[in-house]
Design brief:
The complex is a heterodimer of chains A (about 130) and B (about 250). Chain A is an all-alpha fold and about 130 residues long. Chain A has 5 helices and no strands. In chain A, helix 3 (about 45-75) runs antiparallel to helix 4. The longest helix of chain A has about 40 residues, at about 80-115. Chain A is elongated and about 85 Å long. Chain A starts with a helix and ends with a helix. Chain B has helices at about 1-5, 30-50, 60-80, 90-105, 120-140, 155-170, 170-200, 205-210, 215-250, and strands at about 15-20, 20-25, 25, 30. In chain B, strand 2 (about 20-25) and strand 3 form a beta hairpin. Chain B is mainly alpha-helical and about 250 residues long. In chain B, the strands form 2 sheets. In chain B, strands 1-4 form a two-stranded antiparallel sheet. In chain B, strands 2-3 form a two-stranded antiparallel sheet. Helix content of chain B is about 70%, strand content about 5%. Chain B is built from 9 helices and 4 strands, in the order αββββαααααααα. The chains are: A mainly alpha (about 130), B mainly alpha (about 250). Chains A and B meet through helix 3 and helix 4 of A and helix 3, helix 6, helix 7 and helix 9 of B.
């Protein structure tokens, strides 16, 4: 294996390498451009799970903390009541954060597709999604 | 037997496959879930060793798969956390490949999808969360708590905002865990459900077999969707871990 790499580099071969380098960097640039797009293959189901899990997590943790406060400070039912409401608010906060991120993503994508309109093969699908 | 084959939830039952004695109060019995966790670890480790073993300068086809995977995660870590995030790369890479391989192994018929168990995803989420806490306090000390108090609010609002932000922060591992678990479990239930339709329809004769084409087509489409979700959810888990770690590195809002 190593023998092949140690071959003397004729000018011909270095041209080859330069060409390879050029093609490689083109591919890398393409790949970089593609990476953010991978986000928006989200379908309706995964979007709903994203919001749902954020909200459920908030309510769950809020209620659990309230319940723990009830246990330790003996203030039932106030801890759980306040915890539930705060958890509700935290869940909504999570959803708002997700929505803001999704909005920013859409905005960035719109800017991208506006710049090189229709150049990418996948751009039709992304337009449909918006 | 028929009931067993068409029950869509049967696939999630944890059963012992190898009875082992209890040692120091820990039951060492290998269940199907534990077995597939071991399989996932082995496939990931030996798979990557086999793919990159030769380490050629110009990568072979198999080596470039591993390099693509490496580059993908490295790009992700760099784009979210910058150069500072480099020390977290091994963790994020491990997490991503473990979830990805676990999800993909679950796509084979007869295997057990370990990421469809809430305990497993919650354990993974708690590892990430603990890492975030340790990083946050080690890097910023108590300045990490600034994360809970967004700047530029009237002082009265902080009484309300800080508890909400704390709960929102504590809910992160839960939403991470629920997200992966719900996606995997729902997808596999759906697959099994349509597979069951095919089975029960085709058992009622020629008309049934003709009608079974439809659920079969849906099951095929869902399989394709599931393969995408398998990748996407591993990606989402890793990206969110990166975002949370970035919060821990730079806690100011």
């Amino acid at each position: 294996m190593s023998e092949r790499d140690d071959r003397p580099k004729t000018p011909d071969r270095s041209e080859d390498l330069k060409d390879f380098d050029r093609r490689l960097s083109e591919k890398i640039a393409q790949h970089r451009g593609k990476t953010p797009q991978e986000n928006d293959t989200s379908n309706a189901w995964s979007v709903s799970v994203r919001y749902g899990s954020g909200f459920a997590g908030g309510v769950l943790v809020g209620t659990a903390l309230g319940w723990a406060a009830d246990k330790f400070f003996d203030i039932a039912p106030w801890g759980m009541l306040v915890g539930l409401i705060l958890g509700f608010a935290a869940g909504l906060r999570n959803i708002m954060r997700e929505a803001a991120a999704a909005n920013a993503e859409t905005a960035a994508k719109a800017e991208n597709t506006g710049r090189d309109a229709g150049a990418k093969p996948g751009s039709d699908a992304t337009k449909e999604e918006e | 037997m028929m009931m067993l084959a068409t029950d869509p939830m049967h696939q999630f039952v944890v059963q012992p496959v190898l009875e082992l004695p209890t040692l120091f109060g820990i039951d060492l019995t290998i269940t199907n879930a534990a077995l597939f966790m071991i399989v996932t670890t082995l496939v990931t480790s030996f798979g990557l060793i086999a793919l990159t073993g030769r380490g050629a300068m110009v990568p072979t086809r198999s080596q470039s798969i591993a390099e693509l995977l490496y580059g993908f995660v490295a790009d992700m870590v760099r784009s979210i956390m910058g150069e500072e995030g480099r020390k977290f790369f091994p963790y994020v890479f491990t997490l991503f490949t473990f979830i990805l391989v676990a999800n993909l192994i679950g796509m084979f018929p007869g295997t057990y999808t370990i990421t469809s168990q809430l305990v497993v995803t919650f354990a993974l989420a708690m590892i990430s969360f603990t890492l975030v806490l340790i990083t946050g306090f080690a890097k910023n000390g108590f300045g990490f708590l600034k994360l809970f108090a967004p700047a530029g609010l009237p002082p009265l609002m902080y009484i309300l905002i800080i508890p909400i932000e704390v709960i929102s922060f504590l809910s992160r591992p839960f939403s991470l865990a629920i997200r992966l678990f719900a996606n995997m479990m729902a997808g596999h239930t759906l697959l099994k459900l349509f597979g069951g339709f095919v089975l029960s329809l085709s058992s009622i004769g020629a008309v049934g077999i003709a009608a079974a084409v439809m659920p079969l087509a849906v099951a095929t489409a869902v399989t394709a969707l599931e393969l995408m979700i398998a990748f996407l959810q591993a990606y989402v888990f890793a990206v969110l871990t990166c975002i949370y770690l970035n919060d821990a590195l730079h806690p100011t809002h």
